[in-house]
Specification:
The protein is built from 14 helices and twelve strands. The chain has about 450 residues and is an alpha+beta fold. It binds alpha-D-galactopyranose.
Length: about 450
């Protein structure tokens, strides 16, 4: 039995006296091993689930009120009427993640009646740490709501379809994320990593390296999904969509007007079916210099600068010299290859190669994608010094965690060194209990019995 269940049950009964006996659902956090900022372009990723999870107790109501509460005082109780469409709560309110799931399912099933429910939540996934605590809440709420609707997972909606629906539904909170988090949370496997492809969603489980461990280290820099990091995160998808438009234009000039490319991944995986070399050549022609100014982009696309902003960039400030489109495209191309190579390395049980790929991924995330920060750099450097075969930022970046590959036997020494070098010497503080841990891939999200 999950050891958090009795206290969750108690908190549920205290908050909702007289409610029917609750059902429990669970959704794990995740750590991404490799494949960063590729999912929203339809390019693969390679994450695994974590033992840390989000647990919900849920019971039906006779009206349409949805009440959500949390065992942590950091998340105050909230309530709203279920209807379609749901209006968002103020930015940063945690019930927006619950609303995202409910709104997505209301739309998916084209419901005309909107039942209410009482939810009590408790979570052990570090928050704002790049470990998907928010998507775990979205998935757990979706499972809770499916139960209230009398719908069965795998029968009324497959896990693949639910992951696809929820990836889109989570845009409700304003982050233009891809589908990695919802997919690994719903389709991951105990003790394994998963290579995930998109459009359409496919999952291949791959073994984790024997006698090795993946250690997660929290930089303690909060990467809040709703704060400033959200804006910086969205810059990635925005620039990639502009790159896609410019490359589409180039492909139309090269191959004919009928070519349509909606995401960068389609260059390889869509009807064009280009090789890595052909993609690189096309991008070189479309984006010959490192930076592209707003005016240059508008000229290339034969539209106004206002239109470029309206369609792709929004209010993203133009950096000196223009947007670094070439470097962003370079990261997409190189990271895609690294994910494929990492999958092969895992299948071959080759931890050394996986480590090298993780190191190269970090470098690309830091230099070409610019999603690192000084603390993540210090933490990665400390990890390499402490013997990690591979060390890299994981998740959206701008703070949050790193993931580090080590021989099993080296883990205790590694943890001690990081404690001294990063937390004590660099940050000058003692790490909280859950700042450093060995990742354990737990079962995918589901219902649990008490
Ligand atoms: C966040 C998003 C994911 C993915 C990662 C970066 O976690 O939710 O979809 O884009 O960032 O790889």
């Amino acid at each position: 039995m999950n050891h958090h269940l009795p206290s969750l049950q108690q908190a549920f009964s205290a908050a909702y006296p007289g409610a029917p006996a609750p059902v429990f659902c669970r959704a794990p956090g995740r750590v991404n091993i490799i494949g960063e900022h590729t999912d929203y372009n339809g390019l693969p990723v390679l994450p695994m689930t974590l033992a840390q999870d989000m647990l919900l107790a849920v019971a039906p109501r006779t009206d349409s009120l949805v009440r959500v509460a949390n065992t942590s005082a950091a998340y105050p109780p909230a309530e709203f009427r279920n209807k379609w469409p749901l209006g968002p709560s103020p930015a940063g309110a945690w019930d927006n993640y619950c609303k995202a799931a409910i709104d997505g399912l209301n739309q998916h099933f084209r419901l005309t009646a909107y039942p209410g429910m009482d939810i009590m939540a408790t979570g052990s996934i570090p928050v704002s740490a790049g470990l998907s605590s928010s998507s775990a809440l979205v998935v757990a709420t979706a499972l809770a709501y499916l139960h209230i609707l009398g719908k069965t997972l795998d029968k009324d909606i497959t896990r693949i379809d639910l992951a696809t629906v929820l990836a889109e539904a989570e845009h409700f909170v304003g982050t233009r994320g891809g589908g990695m988090d919802q997919a690994i949370i719903l389709l991951g496997a105990e003790g394994q990593a998963s290579k995930i492809d998109f459009f359409p969603l496919r999952v291949e489980n791959v073994p984790l390296p024997k006698n090795h461990a993946l250690v997660v280290c929290n930089s303690l820099v909060k990467a809040e999904k709703t704060g400033d990091a959200q804006h910086r995160y969205n810059a990635g998808p925005r620039l990639c969509r502009l790159i896609t438009a410019i490359v589409e234009k180039q492909a139309q000039e090269d191959f004919g007007e009928e070519v349509e490319i909606e995401s960068l991944g389609e260059l390889w995986l869509g009807h064009l079916c280009l090789t890595h070399g052909e993609v690189a050549a096309l991008i070189d022609t479309a984006i010959p210099r490192e930076r592209v100014t707003l005016r240059e982009a508008a000229r290339k696309l034969a539209i106004s600068t206002d239109e470029v902003r309206k369609r792709w960039l929004g209010d993203l400030p133009e950096p000196e010299g223009g947007f670094p489109l070439k470097a962003r495209a370079r990261h997409q191309m190189s990271e895609y290859r690294r994910v494929e190579d990492a999958r092969d390395a895992l299948l071959a049980g080759d931890a050394a190669t996986l480590g090298e790929l993780m190191n190269a991924s970090h470098q690309s995330c830091a230099r070409d994608y610019e999603v690192s920060c000084p603390e993540l750099e210090a933490l990665v450097a400390a990890a390499r010094k402490a013997g990690a075969l591979g060390a890299r930022l994981t998740g959206a970046g701008f703070g949050g965690c790193t993931v580090n590959l080590l021989p099993q036997a080296a883990v205790p020494g590694f943890i001690k060194r990081i404690q001294q070098d990063y937390y004590e010497r660099h940050l000058r503080q003692q790490p909280p209990d859950n700042a450093l841990f060995v990742a354990q891939a737990s079962p995918a999200a589901g219902y649990i019995t008490g």
